[in-house]
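Each record in this resource describes a single protein on a pair of labelled lines. An example record follows, reproduced without changes.
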Amino acid sequence: MIDLKAKPFYLSDEEIAWVRDTIAAMTIEEKIAQLFLPVAFGGGPDALDEIIKKGVGGMMYRPSAGDLQGSVRKMQSMAKIPLFIAANLEAGGIGAAASGTDFGKPLQAAACNDPATMGYRLGKVSCAEGGACGINYSFAPIVDIDMNWRNPITNLRTFGSDPDTVLTMGLSYMKAAKEEGLIVSPKHFPGDGVDECDQHLITTVNSLSPEDWMATYGKIYKGMIEAGAETIMVGQIAQPAWTKKLNPEATEAEMYMPCTLNPTLINGLIRGELGFNGMLITDATPMLGFTTAMERRKAVPYAIASGMDMFLFNKSLDEDLGYMMDGYKSGVISEQRLEDALTRILGTKAAMGLHKKAAEGRLVPAAEKLEYLRCEEHVAWAKDCADRSATLVKDTQHLLPITPEKYHRIALTCGEAAKGGFMDDSGPSLSETIKKALEAEGFEVINMESLGFGDMPSKVSDIKDQYDLAMFVFNYPSASNNTSIRIEWKGGMMGATPWFSAEIPTMAISFANPYHMLDLRMIKTMVNAYTLNEYTVPAVISKITGKSAFKGVSPVNPFCDRPYLETI
């Protein structure tokens, strides 16, 4: 029996009665639909209407344009039971609305070396602005540990490689979220960042021993649970060692099953060892880490039967609803398991007071709340984060600071992620942004990428005659379907490469991936800024020109565990 008076629910008798009475009054179709939290990016009002009419338990909606708050207001007014309205509030209000504050990636916040303050500010900006839009459920904080520099998806989306820092920042984020009335979902259990794969593309593996896991990821999740995390997002991630420890008879296939489909980990580790009483939600089920683990007609109901309470996103909502109903009718999902899942879903909604807010017309804030988006305080915090996070990784040639008097002519080469695609976050045009910022300081900037093949300098004498300094700037952020975030020179050996790094002073700046030193051993001056936005660019320019000091401390080892990269 689920204790709705205990952590994290703390429900009164009246609230418990609402949960029980609401479930008792639901049809089986309504019960099955309540298990789902689908997603829609764009789409007209009619498309949203059809989804809400199905009776889903929540929604993640990110309009390509228009009024998010108005859309949320309409969705909530249509719902028989108040909806979870979710967003990836990982890096600021921008996670809810394009007009929100881009506070910066989690790794940038961690580089400020002030975990409690910056974790809180990240949570406050994200959740105050998300809440103003009608969001009540933050799919954050990300409490993965960036243990493996080769991992293509954790990286900037983590608070770094130190478990204590991750926990402090996660707790501070959650404190701010609670102040704003949002629930959180620490993710991605049992922990990403150990292997070099991406769960969007394959089931990833957390290969730590049970002892090492408890000292790292277990410590973090235990801390978040004890502090009152309402939900946990479970990833398409296997944890074979714990599976085997809890079930010595487990087959190899069971050991490498994603946690979302692993009842041993759900019931034995999350519920058992960690004592979590709250709601469990899957990570996105269109991920290949989920879809390739089992036939979908079996996997959809088996996720709930295994102990998950809510099912996130769909390939086809109608088809998944049918699969879930079939699983219930065939006995894959027992009556008790369905009852428990609904109790935790509605218990969480009751703990949020959603039913009371609905009765009082307060589910969505007044339009005036939108003034929180990019408000003066949030922008000031984002600027401060940019200033405190920029990190001088290396300057063994003692190049900095640079001035127009000493290095007037800069040969600029920029590498940038391609625009478009799922989870793309490649930001503004890099070349023009940096060129304009340097020219404002009095430098003459020649964009090497704009030169034709015949105009590209090929002689050492030409390089020395034409340029005083070479600057390479990169923006290759973490994104799914991008399994390697490495430097690849356009045009190969004949393109704009640092072939002349021994001839003229050469430096590099990364506004994303912090591990580029692996491919830039020839460059003696390296700066990491972690996020490309309107605040980090001027902060970095200020520091490389000597107008302000570098303050950032790298939350990861930027030398990829190769000590020689630090000194040569």
In short: The chain has two domains: 13-366, 390-567. Confidence is low (pLDDT under 50) at residues 420-424.
